Amino acid sequence: MATTSLTSVSSTFLQTEFPLKRTKRHINRCSVSKCPFNPISVAPIKSSGSETADTTSLSPVPQNPLPETNKKLPLRKIPGDYGLPLVGPIKDRLDYFYNGGRDKFFRTRAHKYQSTVFRANMPPGPFISNNPNVIVLLDGKSFPVLFDTSKVEKRDLFTGTFMPSTELTGGYRILSYLDPSEPKHDQLKRFLFYLLTSRISHFIPEFHSSYAKLFDTLEKQLAKNGKASFAEANDQAAFNYLAKALYGVNPSETDLKNEAPKIITKWTLLQLSPILSLGLPKYIEEAVFHTFRLPPILVKKDYQRLYDFFYDAASGPVLEEAVRLGVSKEEAVHNLIFATCFNSFGGMKIFFPNMLKWIGRAGVNLHSKLAEEIRSAVKSNGGKVTMAAMEQMPLMKSVVYESFRIEPPVPLQYGKAKHDFVIENHENSFQVKEGEMLFGFQPFATKDPKIFDRPDEFVGERFIGEEGEKLLKHVLWSNGPETEQPTVSNKQCAGKDFVVLFSRLLVVEFFLRYDTFGIQVGKSPIGSAITFTSLKKATF
Ligand code: HEM
């Protein structure tokens, strides 16, 4: 795993050549009117629980990985159709959200067409997206075409077949919406690499500080109520962590106080409501969220508070670097808001509960092994959590990768064909025409039974050892194989190494403090809602 981990410090950007300290805050704020707002070998661990029904792969019978062949596959017309205008897209939307849900939507169509590649409409459809027609990719072989920027354009499709109003991002098209062919993509991605590189020395200590407080809070709640919800405490800890780690600022000492999570949730809802189900009655959701856009004005004042916070927090070398790269301070701040609040905070909000769910359900056997491995590595590193110590935790690293594989936090990916080309699944080849929209449902691609043995099981040690590491190229959560790195010319997640680091840190800090834990799992619009029912303090 050495070549893929941040702990080897092999990445293109997470190196400490730009040591930085936060400087005094500038008071130069942008007012609303001035801003256009506008790898130990262990026995396999089988996860228990009903949730597997929700996330199962396409084949009920797992098969062994197939060897790659150069054999030409028979050309097949892409099966499926889009239905009548308006009617087809609305029917598909209702099926997707309400008639069995998302997994069933894809599974039934794959079964009907006997193909992991087919045509369908993706929400939102009328009247939000102009064209909801997509070619669905559900297997691990066809899916990676979405990473090939010589074949697909990634312009304005970060959220799918519609793009949220740029009024929600200060009037700017943010980096996540830019195609690498646009010069701004290079400048902005470089800018984020600079930010991450310059702050690397803060990533481990600040995580300990913010998440120790979260564990204190959970323990108090457990003592008082017999249970403790993870979501709210995680929201606070995540934002505080990001603010301190990336900018050296404690939000509670600023005008923003502890209100960022609430504001970000509202701001994110305005962007994603067309493609979310909030669990409200169908007719309300359809009328209010899925048919028309919510007006950006609803969050304008709140967004301004974020802007002021980030402008102050980033003033000094960070914004100076933006200007040096040819990005205005204003555009840089809107991009920092998006990278911190949408990409990072949003990622932690979805992935942390999901990972705790899978580890929680795996049971005490896995917990004990993790606790032993983590504590022993930390002990032999002078009692400190360091990058080097984490390199000596193969099970912990594998568990984090397995969590990303079994339930990728960003499940939907899009790319528009730049020209005519042929794509392949395991059985066929298919002709794609220029301008057609390709859509990959990642949870099925990373549970492809032709690639992964026991694809629907949470196998904690899956990625341990030489054979395990070979599978990492099929872990795709970052919009690219885990064995590759984000660059200015691809669309792989700019925060990939940071994300792997903070996800590992959650597991490390957790099992330094606790031997095992109990949870109840509920649903939330963006994933799992975790309630702790027990936290057993470390006994060794
Ligand atoms: C669990 C956390 C995260 C997940 C699951 C995640 C996932 C992703 C995915 C799937 C994409 C590609 C989307 C697409 O184009 O279809 C992406 C892009 C991106 N992510 Fe992340 N991300 C996370 C955290 C972060 C963090 C911490 C940062 C930055 C500090 C970040 C910055 C970005 C940026 C800037 C892009 C666009 C890259 C480009 O345009 O070349 N993400 N991320």
Describe the structure.
The protein has 540 residues and is α+β, with helices and mostly antiparallel strands. Helices cover 42% and strands 10% of the residues. It has one domain (45-537): Cytochrome p450 (Orthogonal Bundle). The protein contains 17 helices and ten strands. A five-stranded mixed beta sheet has the order 1-2-8-5-3. It has a three-stranded antiparallel beta sheet with strand order 4-10-9. The longest helix is centred in the middle third of the chain and has 34 residues, at 329-362. Mean pLDDT is 90; it is low at 1-55 and 60-65. Protoporphyrin IX containing FE binds at residues 154, 158, 175-176, 178, 185, 189, 192, 339, 343-344, 347, 351, 409-410, 413, 477-479, 491, 493-495, 498-499.
What are the salient characteristics of this protein?
alpha+beta, globular, three-stranded antiparallel sheet, 17 helices, disordered N terminus, Cyt_P450_sf, oxidoreductase activity, acting on paired donors, with incorporation or reduction of molecular oxygen, 540 residues, binds protoporphyrin IX containing FE, five-stranded mixed sheet, Cytochrome p450
